[in-house]
Every structure is written in structure tokens, then in C-alpha cells.
Amino acid sequence: MTETLSFPDPTQLAVPFFIAAILIEFLWIAMKKRGGRYETRDAVTSLVMGAGSVAEGILLGFIAWGFLMVLWDLTPLDLGTSVWALVACFVLDDLRYYWVHRFGHRIRWVWASHVNHHSSQHYNLTTALRQTWTGTFTFMMVVKAPLVLLGFHPALVLFAGGLNLIYQFWIHTEAIGKLPGWFEAVMNTPSHHRVHHGRNPRYLDCNYAGVFIVWDRMFGTFVPEQEDEKVDYGLVHNLGTFNPLRVAFHEWLGIWRDITQPGLTLRQRLAYAFAPPGYSHDGSRETSAQIKARHLARHPQDRGTPGFTDRPPGPAQGLRS
Amino acid sequence: MPLEFLLILVIGGISAIAVILHLTGRSHRAVLLPEDARAAWHRHFPDDMIVDVTVAHDGHAALVETEQGPGLLWSFGADTVGRHLRDFDLLDHPQGLRVLFHDFTAPQVTLHLSPDERRDWQARMTPR
């Protein structure tokens, strides 16, 4: 059994590439006067969030590593480190990413960690680096457990996860339009991921893919970018601060305040932490499903079009803070 | 990658990008006209019925009267942020007014107002 195995951290090695690509994108936008927008404080906030995320990985990465190594000691399976093992691990890890990402939008506890990635009103390569500082506390490392139990070494799993994140860097751009049809059909692309970052009712809670958009097509969460509806980036309730600490922790604080308010039942307190974002016991907030329903009430002609094809939702479905 | 090298790369990279963006004019705050303010408010609160919009003389903030109550819209970098005026404190500021929202996601805004604007806005923002 492969006991001692180490791979380089691809996200750390990619830092020079990230910086160069951001400068190239910015120069391209400045010269062409199209393809996106940059704003100083927004970009700096995103970059500081990225640096903090790397620091969090260095400081707390041992927790996920320790958990996965315990599983590795338990499993009798070892698929080795061949190229085929890496390819299989990469594809399955992308399926893992799809579900973790979907949980990240549908479970407030996980959304609290992920929300910062959506908190910019801009969409450029710096937005890709606006990453979480609190991912460890979501305990989403448990979704990696099946991969390790299947015989993929934890080092291979983490390496595949790093490659996945690097792939997603380049799709955070408005400088690239739509790519050839076969590519858009299989791969996650700037067009698909722009939609994911939209706060338009049509674009809420869709396109969770990391590398392969086929997962969204398979699980019914795919919405294509519409020529006649420009993506409006950011949160439903946009932040009024560039302070990275507030960006990183605001939703966790929101959960704390909600679950500790007086007069709630235990079920309501749990719902504030684990129901979809936007849950409220008194109906004072809106879910993404309610936002979509409200949009359809104003624009009934949109019913049945992409992003509005579901049945009318119940009150607890699909929420956004 | 050695940690020291990573630190230098990250700090140097962030600094370089910040300087380039600032020197090429990417630090300018959005300047609002009344019609911009209306559209921006509807972007944040699509269901609100706007009654009146008053834009500050510097164009960086707007007081929005809606049927749902008063609201404040302000420049946030190149974009805008809006909040209903429901839970906040209003403080005097040498250049106008400072709004302290009881909101972790939008803690405060400094409004640059002329003396006349300041009197008018203060009266209209103070909860009755």
C-alpha cells in the first residue's frame, strides 16, 4: 500500500501564473476597452482573500489531511499513482466538487464559507482568487471520503482538487465569449461560470460545475448564458465593505445572531444553520425560489425559459441570503 | 515552494496589481445622476416603488424615498450599495454626515454634503 506519497501543492505553484494572467487580462481590457472591469479596492480585496485562503490551507490543512489519512489506513484498496489513477481521481473529484459546491449554495453552514467568493460585483480573474478562509469549518472534507475509501491516496485526492481549482481560475473572465460548441457542451467555460456568478433571478443556484459542465446537465442544474440577459454579478444583498475580515466572516456572524435570538424552537435554530441560505422563521427573508417566483409574478412570460423551468417551489426551497 | 518566496510573491504581486490599477484610474468611485440612482436602487430592490431621488452634490450618494420607506444608495468603488434606512445612527461629520448602519456587511458611510444638503438630508433621514 502506498504509505508515503507527496505531491506539490499546485495552487501555490500557480501563484506566478495567476499574477501574470491577471496583468494580461487587465492590459487586454484596458487596450480593447471591453471584456470586463477592474476596480482597485475590489481587486485588492479579492487578492487578499486568495492569500488568506492559501494561509488557511497551510495552517489548517492538517485537519483534512489527518482525517483522510485515517480513512486511508482503514481502506484495503490502493489504486496506485499511475496516470490512469490520476485521471480517474480527477474526474471523480470533479463530481465531488460539484456536490460540495451545490451544498455550498443550498446549506447555509457551507454557504457561510462560500459566500465570499460571490461577494464581488465584478467578474474578472481576481474574482477567482476571492476564496474562503473558513472551508475547514464546513467539514466538507467528508465528501472526499469515498475517493480515499475507493483506493485513491489522500495526496492524489488533494492534488486533483488543486488542479480542479487551477482549471477554474481562467473561467472567471468576461474577456472570453462563448467557445466552440463541443467545448461548451462538456467543459465548464467562462460563459457557464458567468451565469453561476449572476444575481439575476434567472441565474440563481445553477452551474455548480468545477471542470466538467456535464454534471449540471446530468443533475438538472444547467442554465445557459442568455444573449438577452446580461449577468449582474454579486450577491442578492451586496456587501457594503471591502474589509476582508467582514467579507470572510459576515455570514458566520449572521448564523450566530440568528440561532441565538430568543424565542425560537430548536428546529428553527437548526434551520438557521443548515437550511438553505435565506431561511427565516418569520418569512422576513427571501429564498432564491421565492425570488424566482416573485420575478415570474412580474414577468410571467419568462415561465418555462432557462432558469425558470422548475415547478413552483415550496417556502423552504432554494434560498439566498 | 519555500514559504519566504511565496510570501514575497504574494505581497509583491498584490502590491503591483494595486498600484497599476490605481495609477490607471481604476480607483474612481461611481458618480451618480438621478436616473442612475433610480436604476441602481431598482437593481438592489426591484420591488420598491421609488417616490423621489435626491443625489448629493458630489454624486457619490443618493437619498431614495420609496413607498417602502427611505433608503440610502452610495458609491461602492465603481458600483453601488443600497440599504433601507431602518436601523442606523446618524452622526455629524466635518464634511457632512456619517451613517452607522447596525449591519456587519455595511458598517458605515460618510456622506459629503454641503451645509444646505446636510440640513435637508438630516431632517429626511431622521426616523420620525
UniProtKB/TrEMBL annotation, chain A:
Identification of the protein by name: Sterol desaturase/sphingolipid hydroxylase, fatty acid hydroxylase superfamily
Keyword match Transmembrane: yes
Residue stretches making up the Fatty acid hydroxylase domain: 87-221
Species, as recorded: Ruegeria marina
GO biological process: lipid biosynthetic process; membrane lipid metabolic process
Location within or outside the cell: Endomembrane system
Top-level taxon of origin: Bacteria
Keywords, comma-separated and alphabetical: Lipid metabolism, Membrane, Oxidoreductase, Transmembrane, Transmembrane helix
Signal peptide per UniProt: none
From TrEMBL, chain B:
Keyword vocabulary terms for this entry: Membrane, Transmembrane, Transmembrane helix
Keyword Transmembrane: yes
Membrane-spanning intervals of the chain: 6-24
Protein name: Uncharacterized protein
Species, as recorded: Ruegeria marina
Organism lineage: Bacteria, Pseudomonadati, Pseudomonadota, Alphaproteobacteria, Rhodobacterales
